[in-house]
Please model this.
Amino acid sequence: APDDFYVANAAPSMERYFGTLHLVGNNSTTGGDLGWYTHTKGVWSPSQQLSFYCSSPPNLVTYKGLLYLFNSTSSGINYSTYQWSAAGGNFTAQQKAVPTSDPNGYYGCFGSPEVLTFNGKLYCFHVGIYNDNKIYCFSFDGTTWSDDQPLAPSGTTDYFETLDQISVVVRNGVVNCLYVDTGRQNVQMFTMDKNGVCSASNQTGFQSS
Model:
């Protein structure tokens, strides 16, 4: 990685987009702004500073021909987009807040939102703030953003909760979400299918330390 790139508080996010590897992360030399690099044909590009303040690590995801950059700030979950061009380009100069019907006007997010594509949609998973430890999810179909919903096993209100970051990945046709329980003792997992039905699973095979 570039010698002058420093991550302030966690690993950067990487995503391959039109044959080029993009890397974005907190740049400690600018007090929380984001540094952006590209890597193609074995060569890293010069650093570019994005004008977004980011108190937590960003996340990149490719969806419907665009590269999305998601990050959380005190004003909620924001995103910016980048579209490939032979002449080069940049992420949109102004980030947009994810639209919400929340009466507070934003989706509160502890730490960093986790994003992926699944079943033809872009999904964002995140943990609540202000002692709201529930794991939430909303989606985007390219036109409409869904409402933010806390997740629980189907037919229950036994919400999945954590005091820490989460990790999501698509495997065997479902979304798998790993999280540490609120007692910070065990790593738990739940799955979400294409219909949004969640199922709990304790078969992670390891404990938190």
